[in-house]
Amino acid sequence: MASIINQEIPEFSADAYVNGEFKTITSEDVKGNWAIFLFYPADFTFVCPTELEDMANHYEELQGLGVEVYSVSTDTHFTHKAWHDSSDAIGKVNYPMIGDPTGKITRGFNVMIEEAGLAERGTFLIDPDGLIQVAEIHAGGIGRSAKDMLRKVKAAQYVRENDGEVCPAAWEQGGDTLKPSLDLVGKI
Prior knowledge:
Number of strands: 9
Strand order of the largest sheet: 2-1-5-4-3-8-9
Number of helices: 5
Largest sheet: 7 strands, mixed
Helix content: 25-40%
Order of helices and strands: EEHEHEHEHEEEEH
InterPro entries: AhpC, AhpC/TSA, Peroxiredoxin, Peroxiredoxin_AhpC-typ, Peroxiredoxin_C, Thioredoxin-like_sf, Thioredoxin_domain
Subcellular location: Cytoplasm
Shape: globular
Organism: Psychrobacter glaciei
Distance between the termini: 30 Å
Pfam family, one: 1-cysPrx_C
């Protein structure tokens, strides 16, 4: 699998369900801001609603950091609305739920399970230039943590704003960073 880190997001235009309305979202709408793409296999399933609800519980904080969240499955935007209206967990979702019934977006992020026509559990952090900074893919039975993604957002934003500094493992906002240099080689 070729790395997609620092690759531009694929061009797309798709219908989404967001805040009680249907809306068209394009790849151009994403650029200029930070974004999380949260791919999941299917609506009306088991692990998926726990992940979308977890992200919804952190959405306000992500918005405060200038991050928009886009959940994506190969279901339609109509199915997203029906799920939103019938599930207490999904009813908490205020971010756009993109329908990708053709699989174009899912294939563009290389997370399509072709034989099933469903998306893998893929999470991508996109910078304001439209470039992928974080890419994670989980097996179907392993749910993701919005809290950990929030930490990665803060690290990516810190690195972007502080040229020459990097964030070590398990870095938390306000923690020590590193400035790679010859002096550090073999000292860590």
